[in-house]
């Protein structure tokens, strides 16, 4: 085992990748690409001060894609033995021989491959003995119970530390890879008794464990949120402004990314077809992609095709400047890859000038959404309908919690109806966006 905790060094992964490419060429593949990866970690959870679970994970894998002209075959294995790697290449070739040719299949152009590999500070090992992890989880949960006697039960607190590394390579000479880490602390508690109980949670996740919220703060936050929901009730059906709390606002950005991604576009299953250069958001919305953000949760110098990533402005003053395309989807659309095979890289919505309280005052009367249920999104039409819970606002102030309602609208109108983006950004994910105020949605209640 290497001193880092990985079973293999980066050099060893690169040698495996090189062996695969050599064998694929020797067996007649016209092109080949491969990913070699491994990861390990541990997670613990406690419930009511008792250890609930202790889990260790260690895994590895190799994926091989080969091409015979424009016939494509894929196979994978978790066995790094030379014989198993050769058998995987040959399995991929066998699949390719029985696959129809696809005019969009194949590697990216050589001049699109990444050649610069800056250190993005993504790997921060967390030397955390299991006993210490258990103590952190207990501190997190205890802080929730200590916050108020109205916290009556717990679904547990968890601590997780994970590390991984990979190497990607292809027959055009590209080879790159790096190690990364992802650590988290979470807590979920219940307030109240009987039919009046309310559950809430909070969490934080970072590349660097020293930047995590303190476990006690996470526990208190979970408790505060659960208590705030006590006494929730339904509201009459109405059309009112809606605030999506910051953790849910990033979900709206996720809806946008899906609709603006190559797969949905070339299948013509997106409401954003033919939208480049047109207003898709309100003018107050500016969305950037930052692939080289230090410690970013989605940072990387290349995408899953080996194509060099780049920083860019995706939405400027509400207008869509670019889609999210990998090589395959770009070819299907007759366009150029944007370096987004495998997804977007650190999407950041520029905040406005209002903090959360200012957004509430600006709304005046309406609904704050803090929880969504179900998956009622039609990406062909943009129709949006989700079960929800949150808070009712009157006179620019929170009046009471709300539950058992449904919110409905259409993403096209919702995006264009954004009136403000808050400053209350959480830095724990690959998308960063403050709370979002939308001018009008239908709230279905009593």
Write up what this structure looks like.
By secondary structure, this protein is of the alpha+beta class. The chain has helices at residues 10-26, 82-97, 130-147, 215-228, 246-259, 262-266, 327-333, 356-363, 411-416; strands at residues 31-47, 50-68, 71-77, 151-170, 175-191, 198-206, 238-244, 287-289, 312-316, 319-320, 347-349, 366-377, 383-394, 397-410, 418-421, 431-432, 436-444. The chain has a six-stranded antiparallel beta sheet. Strand 9 and strand 10 (319-320) form a beta hairpin. The mean pLDDT is 96.
Looking at this protein, list some descriptive labels:
about 450 residues; alpha+beta; 6-stranded antiparallel sheet; 5-stranded mixed beta barrel; 9 helices; 17 strands
Strand and helix order: HEEEHHEEEHEHHEEEHEHEEEHEEE
Could you estimate the helical fraction of the residues in percent?
A: 10-25%
Number of helices: 9
- In terms of DSSP E residues, the strand content is 35-45%
What spatial order of strands do you see in the largest sheet? 3-2-1-4-5-6
* Helical/strand content category: alpha+beta
Distance from N terminus to C terminus (CA atoms, Å) equals 61 Å
Mean pLDDT: 96
Describe the sheet with the most strands.
Answer: 6 strands, antiparallel
How many β strands by DSSP? 17
Gyration radius (Cα, Å) is: 24 Å
């Amino acid at each position: 085992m290497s001193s880092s905790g990985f079973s293999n060094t980066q050099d060893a992964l690169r040698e495996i990748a090189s062996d695969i490419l050599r064998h694929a060429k020797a067996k007649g593949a016209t092109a080949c690409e491969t990913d070699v990866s491994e990861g390990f970690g541990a997670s613990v959870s406690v419930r009511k001060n008792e250890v609930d679970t202790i889990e260790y994970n260690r895994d590895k894998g190799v994926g091989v894609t080969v091409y015979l002209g424009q016939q494509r075959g894929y196979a994978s294995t978790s066995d790094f033995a030379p014989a198993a790697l050769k058998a995987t290449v040959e399995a991929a070739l066998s699949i390719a021989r029985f696959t129809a040719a696809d005019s969009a299949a194949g590697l990216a152009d050589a001049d699109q491959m990444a050649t610069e590999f800056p250190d993005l500070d993504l790997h921060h090992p967390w030397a955390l003995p299991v006993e210490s992890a258990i103590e952190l989880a207990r501190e997190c949960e205890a802080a929730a119970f200590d916050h108020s006697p109205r916290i009556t039960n717990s679904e547990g607190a968890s601590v997780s530390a994970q590390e991984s590394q990979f190497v990607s390579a292809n027959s055009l000479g590209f080879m790159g890879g790096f190690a990364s880490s992802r650590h988290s602390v979470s807590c979920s508690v219940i307030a109240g008794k009987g039919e009046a109980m309310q559950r809430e949670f909070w969490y934080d996740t970072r590349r660097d464990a020293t930047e995590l919220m303190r476990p006690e703060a996470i526990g208190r936050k979970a408790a505060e949120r659960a208590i705030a929901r006590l006494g929730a009730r339904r509201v009459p059906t109405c059309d009112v402004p809606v605030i999506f709390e910051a953790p849910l606002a990033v979900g709206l950005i996720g809806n946008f990314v899906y609709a603006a991604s190559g797969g949905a576009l070339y299948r013509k299953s997106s409401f954003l077809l033919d939208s480049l250069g047109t207003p898709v958001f309100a003018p107050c919305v500016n969305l950037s992609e930052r692939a080289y953000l230090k410690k970013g949760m989605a940072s990387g110098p290349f995408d899953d095709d080996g194509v060099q990533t780049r920083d860019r402005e995706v939405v400027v003053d509400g207008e869509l400047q670019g889609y999210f395309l990998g090589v395959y989807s770009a070819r299907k659309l007759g366009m150029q890859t944007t370096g987004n095979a495998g997804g977007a890289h650190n999407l950041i919505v520029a905040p406005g000038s209002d903090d959360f309280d200012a957004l509430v005052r600006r709304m005046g009367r309406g609904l704050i959404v803090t929880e969504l249920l179900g998956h009622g999104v039609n990406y062909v039409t943009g129709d949006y309908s989700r079960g929800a819970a949150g808070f009712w606002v009157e006179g620019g102030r929170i009046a009471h919690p709300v539950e058992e309602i449904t919110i409905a609208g259409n993403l096209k109108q919702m995006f264009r109806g954004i009136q403000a983006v808050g400053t209350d950004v959480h830095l724990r994910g690959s998308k960063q966006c403050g709370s979002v105020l939308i001018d009008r949605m239908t709230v279905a209640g009593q």
